[in-house]
Design the sequence.
């Protein structure tokens, strides 16, 4: 018997910031440090929520709207993704496009808000964000299209559920790993992780995502942090489910496995961040184009 | 290369001579000597003004011949203005701007006559220009844009203002405007040494305490005709190399951090602390404040401390080697370092880079090696160069120097001389005497030039920190680079703001 879908949505909304704690612990481990507490992101968000915000006189409503859109998009996205055996709250044919362009919309408002400040840094960050997401988007969509073709489904929940019920074909064995590789690169790019972006740097000139939100503070910044936690949760859970499409005997075991694989993907993000340097910004388009090509290869194989 | 011949005073590092011995020529031969010397491979270590009666200014130049290990001094008197050297000799660029700002003597035809530190003129009633307000270079065009960074930065670092002229992500020109750390130390010294002078020397650039204080103390010793005992020199050598170790290790960690390579960043941050703590074993202060005094060192090193230092050095070597080699063995790090922020050998020579920044462009110049002083007269420090001139080169030369410094410290600890660490100071400084003292600080050549008056007090005391030479090198390194690589290039030079601003 399955629990109703809103329970897992509630769990996802509550647990998403925990993933940052996991990544930071992994990174601290590699660096020989203790690292911040696992729940640090919760403390940060709570702290920020209690603060007021300062708005520059040059900004307009767009600047205040963008953090809200980030959170709203995150919450909607979580609803389209199932966890364990449960169905997702929202699911319809073609909702993979909804997922991709929800994030597109959040990015659009973030970029506008960044340009709104008139700062040279933020304009630079906006230009980078747009350039890189333009290249990450086809990798994501084509990757999902390949999986859609493989399973004959066109909703996120449908694809993941079909994978779980078994596509033990030879094609599936080839398509799935390629898609996972491509989607993992998209995850790193979309969530501003190393090797594409460095979430920890304080150097404005090298930032992509962070520099766009430099002028946000207080509750707005809290929303932005929470929104990015949800985004990471969505990407990581999709990849985890594709990677471990196993159906367990009981819902409890299934939920445990889903959680474990989600954590494994998160740890992998931390390991990548700890063992390699960031790419030169000139090389990022090459990485993302590579991801698109991987997705295309998967699509071509799935078509056969 | 033939010996440099000209109408100059030919001295070695730290030699004292009567002020009148420095040849005073007309402007034409002064110019010819400098331009000719630099074209023959000599470097301008210092070019500065010292006031004479009335409106006259005496310009002194120190030309350094690294191959022969000699310094050439020449002077000329100017009033009002003279024809700038910079168009024919780029090394004079910052010095002439400084002379104009401090003394109001205009180098006619200088292409870039802007304030250096926005300081009050030394003579007359002129006011300082408002800091940071100057005629910045502009690139015009629909798609060209300007990025201004600082003076307040995101990290806990010193203030400085950077203007980038960009087209998209590509930097066409970087202009660096400093002066925010100006404390006016040079103008406080004449009439001294004052009781405060040693403390001002130790804090010229906080991370080069031993470097600047060591130079000052040698200067005082030369003027008073005493010499530090062997043990004092050995301890100074250890302190200087520990300073180099700590800063180079810290820099490599910071460079790793700038490319997002966490393990080396974290470990080097800690290991830098270990090196600083070894300096604290010497004297109780991590930066070596109070260790070096005129006549030697204020602290002795007994066999128990030597044991502790040797043990700590072994640990340091083990940790530093594994942390740094991990970085140099990681392809993604090398991909970031290589070909980033390249300065050609020709450019480096033309603008007069010093220290590791120069050695990583393939220039062979190291004061310890070519103009030896103190302990380096007896124990030769190896000089390392690399030829690529990029961030990798600046990182790799640092790593080679780290290894050399560790070996050097170990060797000196094993062969510690016995006896006193300090010679008592006696009497006054010799009157009407002048000297130029060079030191290889961890950033490069530190040049102090001073003269005493008839009463044995300082008439002037000129300080040239290596950063004064090298900031322009950073600007050159950024040409045609990605603006996102600026922090990495900046860290690969790691220059001092307060050392420049004095």
Sequence:
């Amino acid at each position: 018997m399955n629990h109703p879908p809103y329970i897992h949505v509630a769990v996802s909304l509550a647990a998403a910031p925990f993933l940052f704690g996991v990544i930071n612990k992994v990174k601290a481990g590699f660096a020989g440090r203790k690292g911040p507490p696992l729940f640090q992101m919760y403390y940060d968000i709570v702290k920020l929520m209690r603060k007021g915000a300062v708005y520059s006189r040059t900004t307009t409503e767009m600047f205040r709207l963008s953090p809200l859109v980030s959170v709203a998009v995150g919450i909607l996205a979580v609803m389209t993704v199932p966890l364990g055996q449960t169905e997702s709250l929202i699911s319809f044919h073609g909702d993979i496009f909804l997922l991709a362009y929800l994030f597109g919309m959040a990015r659009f408002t973030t970029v506008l808000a960044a340009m709104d400040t008139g700062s040279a840094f933020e304009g630079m960050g906006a230009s980078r964000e747009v350039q890189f997401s333009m290249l990450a988007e086809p990798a994501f969509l084509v990757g999902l299209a390949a999986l859609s073709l493989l399973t004959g489904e066109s909703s996120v929940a449908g694809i993941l559920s079909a994978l779980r019920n078994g596509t033990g074909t030879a094609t599936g064995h080839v398509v799935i790993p390629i898609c996972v590789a491509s989607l993992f690169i998209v995850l790193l790019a979309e969530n501003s992780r190393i090797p594409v972006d460095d979430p920890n740097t304080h150097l404005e000139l090298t930032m992509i995502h962070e520099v766009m939100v430099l002028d946000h503070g207080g509750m707005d910044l809290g929303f932005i942090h929470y929104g990015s936690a949800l985004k990471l949760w969505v990407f990581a859970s999709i990849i985890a489910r594709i990677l471990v499409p196993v159906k367990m005997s009981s819902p409890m075991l299934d939920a445990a496995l889903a959680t474990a694989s989600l954590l494994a993907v998160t740890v992998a993000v931390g390991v990548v961040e700890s063992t390699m340097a960031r790419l030169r910004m000139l090389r990022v388009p090459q990485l993302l184009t590579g991801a698109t090509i991987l997705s295309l290869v998967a699509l071509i194989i799935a078509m056969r | 290369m033939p010996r440099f011949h000209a109408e100059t005073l030919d001295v070695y590092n730290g030699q004292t001579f009567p002020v009148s011995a420095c040849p005073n020529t007309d402007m034409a031969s002064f110019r010819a000597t400098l331009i000719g010397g630099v074209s023959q491979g000599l470097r301008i270590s210092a070019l500065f003004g010292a006031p004479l009666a009335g409106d006259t200014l005496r310009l002194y130049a120190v030309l350094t011949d690294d191959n022969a290990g000699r310094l050439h001094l020449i002077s000329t008197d100017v009033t009002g203005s003279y024809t700038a050297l910079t168009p024919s000799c780029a090394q004079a660029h910052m010095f002439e701007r400084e002379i104009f700002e401090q003394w109001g003597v205009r180098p006619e035809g200088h292409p870039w006559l802007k304030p250096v530190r926005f300081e009050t003129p030394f003579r007359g009633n002129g006011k300082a220009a408002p800091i940071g307000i100057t005629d910045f270079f502009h690139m015009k065009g629909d798609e060209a844009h300007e990025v201004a960074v600082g003076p307040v930065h995101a990290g806990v670092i010193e203030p400085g203002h950077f203007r980038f002229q960009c087209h998209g992500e590509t930097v066409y020109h970087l202009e660096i405007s400093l002066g925010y750390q100006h404390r006016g130390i040079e103008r406080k010294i004449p009439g001294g040494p004052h009781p405060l002078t040693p403390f001002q020397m130790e804090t010229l650039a906080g991370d080069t305490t031993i470097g600047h204080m060591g130079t000052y103390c040698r200067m005082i010793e030369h003027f008073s005709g005493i010499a530090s005992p062997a043990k004092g020199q050995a301890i100074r050598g250890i302190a200087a190399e520990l300073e180099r170790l700590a800063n180079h290790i810290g820099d490599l960690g910071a460079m790793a951090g700038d490319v997002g390579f966490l393990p080396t960043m974290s470990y080097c941050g800690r290991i830098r602390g270990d090196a600083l703590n070894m300096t604290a074993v010497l004297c109780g202060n991590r930066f070596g404040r109070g260790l070096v005094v005129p006549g030697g060192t204020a602290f002795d090193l007994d066999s128990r401390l030597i044991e502790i230092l040797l043990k700590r050095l072994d640990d340091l070597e083990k940790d530093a080697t594994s942390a740094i080699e991990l970085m140099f063995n990681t392809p993604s790090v090398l991909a970031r370092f290589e070909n980033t922020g390249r300065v050609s050998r020709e450019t480096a020579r033309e603008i007069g880079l010093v220290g590791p920044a120069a050695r990583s462009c393939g220039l062979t110049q190291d004061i310890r090696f070519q103009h030896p002083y103190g302990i380096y007269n007896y124990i030769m420090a190896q000089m390392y160069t690399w030829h690529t001139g990029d961030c990798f080169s600046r990182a790799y030369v640092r790593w080679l120097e780290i290894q050399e410094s560790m070996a050097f410290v170990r060797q000196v600890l094993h062969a510690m001389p016995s006896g006193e660490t300090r010679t008592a100071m006696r009497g006054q400084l010799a009157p009407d005497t002048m000297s130029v003292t060079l030191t290889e600080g961890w950033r490069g050549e530190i040049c102090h030039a001073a003269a005493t008056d008839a009463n044995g007090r300082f008439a002037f005391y000129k300080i040239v920190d290596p950063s004064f030479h090298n900031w322009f090198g950073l600007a050159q390194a950024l040409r045609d680079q990605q603006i996102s690589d600026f922090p990495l290039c900046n860290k690969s030079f790691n220059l001092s703001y307060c050392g420049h601003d004095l």
Remarks:
- The first strand of chain B starts at residue 9 and ends at 11.
- The mean pLDDT of chain B is 91.
- DSSP finds 15 helices and 17 strands in chain B.
- The first helix of chain B runs from residue 27 to 39.
